Amino acid sequence: MGGRNNKRKQHLPLPIELEKVTGKVTKAIYDKMKHDQVRDLKKKTAALKQSATGSGRKRAAPAAAQPSATPKKQKQQPAKRKPAAKPESEEDEESGEEPVMADGPDGGWDNAPLESDSEMGDSDAESLDEFDSDDDHVTQQPLSLLSDDSEEEDEDEEDGGVESYDEFDSDDEQVTFRDMEKRSRKLDERRAEDAEMADMELQDQEQAVTSEREVFELPSEAQVEAEKEAPLDLTQVQMRIQEIIRVLNNFSDLRGPSHSRNDYMDQLKRDMCFYYGYNEFLMEKLLQLFTVSEAVEFFEANEVARPVTIRTNTLKTRRRDLAQALINRGVNLDPIGKWTKVGLTIFDSPVPVGATPEYMAGHYMIQAASSFLPVMALGPQENEKVLDMSAAPGGKTTYCSALMKNTGMMVANDANKEREKALVANIHRLGVSNAIVCNYDGREFPKVMGGFDRVLLDAPCSGTGVISKDASVKTNKGPEDFSMLTHLQKELILSAIDSVNADSATGGFIVYSTCSVTVDEDEAVVNYALSKRPNVRLVDTGLDFGRPGFTSFRGQAFHHSLALTRRFYPHAHNMDGFFVAKFKKTSNKIVVGDKQVVPVGSGAKLKQKKKKN
Q1: Is the N or C terminus of the chain more exposed, i.e. has fewer CB atoms within 10 Å?
Q2: Which EC number(s) are documented for this chain (predicted)?
């Protein structure tokens, strides 16, 4: 026995790393596979003895065996071994006979290439005592069906464990199924520990930041004066804006004992003017529209360019065909949304969108998504007489003609003669044939031509909704500009109302729109039109998204029907800021005191002349 134990010690399995270096199957693994075949031989011999009693001892030919996975150990009582008896494996060695292995290499197992780790298994590092018992019956199973007991034994083996993440990243070492499950569990445990530590660190940081925020104080007057000469860094200003917003959102708990809400608002205006580059007048006017948190979102949205959008010209093509043609040119695009059937958003294009063959052929118009809205609200019909009072550069005019299918009459007017060059070019390029281009001041237009079924007025405005396109609006708009613009808008909207024929069988509608978000240019102008022209009323725009207009604002009370108007914001709808209102003209006559007045330009004026003649 002593010699046999020494023999076992000499042939214990080598470390896996050394096996990989040598690139050969070691003696220990070879002995194990040979021992498996000897055990199978003994089982067959015993079966033959029982079946053929009385006959002499016969030796069955050894069966071919494949190198198998680590067998599953059965929990049995150990058999008593006779000291004098020798195992048949030793008898085979003494006789010089070795069992023949079916798939053995020609040069012998000592020079055989290294098999995969899944064939070797983790049990190679264990003792060979489990193979010594003649009475042991071991059933080989696939590695995926190994019991939990063997997995627990593998976890207890220090040599089989993984001590660092570097071993998981090794591309050279192949792992067994049991190793993968064990390593996966260890990885999950470490990831859970890392996540727990990260959460604890995040909570500590949040507590530290909260403790610092609780002691926030407004800068003193001396500090404010000093900052005018030596401005703070933009990062510091941004942090102070966030702190002031936090205080204003929970003013009762976080306010300073010696500061009012106006003190915080004044400092917020100064910081936001410095950070975003607005003048104080426009900053105050815009802050009145939103809460302080939403105001920051609005200003941030104005710093980001809106997506490039195009409108399909249905006079020449369909949106599906246009999209396919542009995709074939490598353009990355998508429909704008469910609210429009002709719009496409361009995300990326290898060629300029305004220089493709499809653009030159008039298959589409580069047009902001917000400018679709007033035309959709107007809804021109075929064979109608429609007026666009401020038509250049032609996006809305050509959209109206497309909806009218080149029928009826489309009058495109613009007061700026230079801008009409682009208007005429787009009308020709898109194949519009029912348009008349004219150059009149819109305030005098009813005297020139009247009796329209529908009128679209996209009035000149301050452009506070398109700051992302024209950043100069931040600084070049003052009180005088707003006073002049609102006066012009009020005159134009009255002219537009007077140009419509209330007796139209299909129309009698006026749409007023601006690319501004200020109340002075939107609700205030519409409310003025309702007070001056009682023969019109507001109706639903037909746009199923957007925010309702204001019915009251900072002490001003507007008509309750202004809730039918729609507002659009860049931070909420991902398009330019816009305002849309739709009127329905109910009569061509205006009651002023005890008299009925018929404005010049309406259809009723023409009918009265015919009756007198």
Answers
A1: C
A2: 2.1.1.310
